[in-house]
Specification:
four-stranded antiparallel β-sheet; seven-stranded mixed β-sheet
């Protein structure tokens, strides 16, 4: 599976962005998908995950209620809608694929920069 993230950019605090992650390959619908982020000088951290069917979602406490992960298996795409953005959300965001929820993420996209100005 090859992953390509897009949709990053510069936004003011309180604004919104939607990240997309397009996947190649026919088996996209078999994978659980996740979003992670890494801020400068910090370790990569989990943001959100969604099961292969979209029926289960999980969020980091720091984004719960503000971010929404979704997927469209017909389009081989997973999304991360980010609302009420804060400067501390500034990071490079990565999408990743795993065969099972909670398993190791085996495939990673190249990352999309999100910058939130105060």
């Amino acid at each position: 599976v090859q992953l390509q993230a897009s949709g990053g950019g510069l936004v003011q605090a309180g604004g919104s962005l939607r990240l997309s992650c397009a996947a190649s390959g026919r088996t996209f619908s078999s994978y659980a998908m996740g979003w992670f982020r890494q801020a400068p000088g910090k370790e990569r951290e989990f943001v959100a995950a969604i099961s292969w069917s979209g029926g289960s979602t999980y969020y980091a406490d720091s984004v719960k209620g503000r971010f929404t992960i979704s997927r469209d298996n017909a389009k081989n795409t997973v999304y991360l809608q980010m609302n009420s953005l804060k400067p501390e959300d500034t990071a490079v965001y990565y999408c990743a694929a795993a065969l099972l929820m909670g398993a190791t993420y085996d495939y990673w996209g190249q990352g999309a920069q999100v910058t939130v100005s105060s």
